[in-house]
């Protein structure tokens, strides 16, 4: 058999492993158990009058010696098969964890029970695609990864500020910042590695490192080693034991262009954020960038698509403005959910309600792509004045926007930071909604060869 030829399997037979002795003890224990059962059975035969059926059930028409050999053989076969299948289940789960963890050892990562649980359940969880960027996306992913390994994060590449913007301008790569945040959120590597990945060099570091994130530099260096940003993201995810995959919405050099309500045009994601003025709409330059094919396929084959949370105009909309991403979202048979922000963002969404967020997306997408909207209800406490923000409320008096039945109102706030969602609360609401209302809906897999020319 193939498993017997496996060198790792044969290692169990090496003297000194401390394993075989316990298997021997198991067989001795089973022997004593069988002996005890036989004593009780003999006493029952002598003391009780049993129905004639037991004559055939106990194979008394076969000589006793043959019966003994037969029962011993069957019991040994059961024990061997049981132990073998038990170990196969454990070894498969551990190997799966090690493959995902790259260089991480099983002993330094998840507990054995979590490895088995994830292999048996999380690996078979719903295919979930999240679309967005920024801190909101990473918070959502931290909660979802506890329920499914079939996660795909489609992130914006329009960032042109900070470390990402400098690397983009100097080296001509797609900005790695949102990719880095998603990798850190989905990583199962040691906490020290995750913290290192998020480390940002302080002022005075020298050599032009001030403000750069180590993770950004790592991804860019990996792209040089592997020959491309796509492979760099894939290999970095493998090294840090990422659950799921992170995909850019496009690989083209796109820039975000904002149009303010007073008629001005602002070019660049960082400039839009810094302007702190009311935004009427945003667009991309070039206007029709090609979508990353894997991102389109992931959306078309998803069971559940989640848009947001994140900065409405600078993190969420840049993804759906890519034409083929927008088309895939509109044509998908998956349940689609929009997660509304819990707080307004100064200069982008001042005084916005939940319905205002949804209408802004619909006006850019050209329709109503969402089945449900998840909105926060824990809005009683005011936010600090220095945040220039306020809780995003459900506008119950509004006659426009999503139907009341589409809005799923729940407490999804992080009580320690009321500007953010709580990962566990948010994931619980979304997965409960999916299992109760969307899991049984029919869906059709789309072929992987779908191209961005659709």
Task: Provide structural commentary.
- The model is unreliable at 99-108 and 440-454 (pLDDT under 50).
- The protein has 18 helices and 12 strands.
- Helices cover 47% and strands 12% of the residues.
- It is elongated.
- The strands form 3 sheets. The chain has a 7-stranded parallel sheet with strand order 3-2-1-7-8-9-10, with helices on both faces.
- It folds into 2 domains: 2-119, no CATH class; 125-156 and 249-438, 3-Layer(aba) Sandwich (Rossmann fold).
- The chain is an alpha/beta fold and 454 residues long.
- Strand 1, helix 7 (134-144) and strand 2 (151-155) form a beta-alpha-beta unit.
- Helix 11 packs across helix 12 (229-239).
């Amino acid at each position: 058999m193939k498993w017997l030829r496996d060198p790792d399997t044969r290692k169990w037979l090496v003297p000194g492993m401390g394993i075989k002795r316990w298997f021997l003890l198991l067989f001795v224990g089973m022997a004593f158990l069988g002996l005890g059962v036989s004593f009780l059975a003999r006493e029952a035969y002598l003391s009780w009058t049993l129905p004639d059926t037991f004559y055939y059930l106990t194979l008394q028409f076969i000589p006793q010696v043959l019966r003994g050999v037969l029962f011993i053989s069957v019991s040994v076969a059961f024990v061997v098969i049981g132990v073998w299948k038990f170990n196969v289940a454990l070894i498969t789960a551990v190997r799966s964890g090690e493959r995902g963890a790259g260089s991480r050892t099983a002993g330094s990562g998840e507990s054995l029970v979590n490895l088995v649980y994830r292999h048996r359940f999380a690996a078979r969880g719903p295919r979930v695609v999240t679309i967005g960027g920024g801190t909101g996306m990473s918070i959502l992913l931290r909660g979802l990864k506890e329920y499914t390994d079939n996660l795909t994060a489609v992130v914006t590449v329009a960032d042109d500020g900070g470390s990402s913007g400098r690397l983009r301008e100097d080296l001509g790569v797609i900005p790695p910042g949102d990719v880095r945040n998603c990798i850190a959120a989905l990583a199962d590597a040691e906490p020290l590695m995750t913290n290192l990945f998020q480390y940002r060099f302080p002022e005075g570091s020298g050599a032009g490192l001030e403000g750069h994130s180590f993770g950004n530099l790592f991804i860019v260096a990996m792209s040089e080693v592997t020959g491309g940003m796509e492979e760099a993201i894939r290999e970095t995810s493998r090294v840090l034991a990422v659950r799921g995959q992170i995909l850019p919405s496009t690989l083209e050099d796109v820039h975000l262009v904002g149009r303010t309500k007073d008629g001005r045009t602002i070019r660049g994601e960082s400039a839009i954020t810094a302007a702190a003025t009311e935004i009427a709409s945003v667009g991309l330059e070039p206007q029709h960038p090609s979508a990353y094919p894997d991102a389109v396929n992931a959306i078309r084959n998803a069971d559940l698509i989640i848009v947001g949370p994140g900065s409405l105009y600078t993190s969420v909309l840049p993804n759906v403005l890519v034409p083929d991403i927008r088309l895939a979202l509109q044509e998908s048979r998956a349940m689609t959910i929009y997660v509304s922000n819990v707080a307004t963002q100064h200069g982008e969404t001042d005084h916005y309600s939940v319905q205002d967020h949804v209408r802004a997306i619909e006006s850019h997408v050209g329709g109503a792509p969402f089945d449900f909207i998840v909105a926060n209800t824990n809005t009683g406490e005011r936010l600090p004045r220095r945040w220039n923000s306020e809780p995003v409320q459900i506008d119950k008096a509004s006659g426009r926007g999503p139907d009341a039945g589409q809005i799923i109102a729940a407490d999804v706030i992080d009580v320690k930071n009321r500007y953010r969602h709580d990962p566990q609360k948010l994931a619980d609401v979304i997965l409960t909604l999916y299992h109760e209302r969307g899991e049984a809906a029919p869906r059709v897999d789309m072929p992987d060869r779908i191209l961005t020319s659709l």
